[in-house]
Amino acid sequence: MTINKKHPAVWVPTLYFSEGLPFVATSVVSVLMYKSLGLSDSEIAFFTTLIMWPWTLKPLWGPLLEMFKTKKHFVVATQFIGGAAFGILALTLPLDGFLQYSLVMFVIIAFNSATHDIAADGVYINSLSSREQAEYVGWQGAFYNVAKVLSQGALVYIAGVLELSIGVVEAWMIVMGLFGAILFLMALYHFKVLPTGGTSASVNSANEAFTTFAKVVKSFFSKKNILWGLAFIILFRTAEGQLTKIVPLFMRAARENNGLGLLTSDIGIAYGIFGAAAFVLGSIAGGYFVAKRGLKKSIFILAIIFNVPDLVYTYLAFTLPENFSIICTAISFEWFGYGFGFVGVILFMMQQIAPGPYKMAHYAFATAIMNLGFMIPSMISGFVSDYLGYQNFFVWVIIATIPSFLVAWFVPFNEAPSTTEIPLDRFKD
């Protein structure tokens, strides 16, 4: 296998920036777009969670990517396709059936982006030595979060400004078009600089691919304490899954409807700049904390730091402060705790579930199952919020943190492995 050696600093940051952009656009920015376009909270939470399924299902078609072309081919192709899909999505927004058409495009974007993630991680694994992988994993997380800041911050801010000047539909057409243009530029850039990532000669047919896949699945569910492990990664994020879709809707809702009444541009600043920066700082701090104490001794503390800051939304819902700096401070506090505590579930999957003969495949399965546990609460959160109202909903979320504390307290730990392979999507949510 011949690998084109290019310096990792040339392509690792842009590769993971390109990975984060469509994910954040689909999971978060779509929520704000549909809110501006007049959908109800229950519709938005349900549909924008439904379109996230491809990131959970991606292990199902991952083996097939080993059979064709190079991994660079799939990365560049999916970036071009993603750019085109965002462009078509923008054109659907003025149509009468914009909801159905735009959701179809988001599903295409999600399947395409999930495929991009598999190929991108393959390029990273095959092009870098173990030492280089460890050195550049921080670059992954940093530039994945740069994509968050750009998507949730700058582009949402632009949408908010344009909503007031040229209209809601036109504003979001431009922003979705910008997402597409950025992916086109990334495709052109990676066509020039990305290493091939190699091709696999070990999988020669679909039957062979899925036979190997069956072995990976069987060995995964044969692991010691796997049911406890699955309970942990599913239940740890129960409350967070409900908050994710409702918080931006609460921030956007009018004050007469018990929301904060923020403009879309204000949310871009609060969420995309202060929140994203706090998340990065929390992640770094959480990593050092666990490195010093060890995961087993830290896990319950991480659960506390992960969940207790959710109280800020109960405070915001009952007080409805008009001071924007108070709102930004509250959001930063919660996102710091989110980043700090999220280290726990990522390291648990890395150290307790992934080790074995299929480390990367088992880590991919674990993240897929974790996303499933996150998506189900997200999907129903809009209906719960509509029924309870924002104030009672955030009180309910505090109650919903209890499973996280229980699994963090009772989950058994297997003997620590002697070596740990660093997973590729440690900073993804």
**CATH architectural label of the largest domain:** Up-down Bundle
Distance separating the two termini? 33 Å
Q: What structural class do helix, strand and pairing data support?
A: mainly alpha
Unreliable stretches (pLDDT < 50, length at least 5) are: 417-429
In short:
With 429 residues, the chain is mainly alpha-helical. The chain folds into 2 domains: 9-197, MFS general substrate transporter like domains (Growth Hormone, Chain: A), CATH 1.20.1250; 210-411, MFS general substrate transporter like domains (Growth Hormone, Chain: A, Up-down Bundle).
Describe this entry's structure for a reader.
This protein is mostly helical and 429 residues long. The two termini are 33 Å apart. It has helices at 8-36, 41-50, 53-57, 71-92, 98-127, 130-165, 168-193, 206-221, 226-235, 238-252, 264-293, 295-307, 311-319, 324-353, 359-399, 402-410. 77% of the residues lie in helices and 0% in strands. The relative contact order is 0.15. It contains 16 helices and no strands. The chain has two domains: 9-197, MFS general substrate transporter like domains (Growth Hormone, Chain: A); 210-411, Up-down Bundle (Growth Hormone, Chain: A). The model is unreliable at 417-429 (pLDDT under 50).
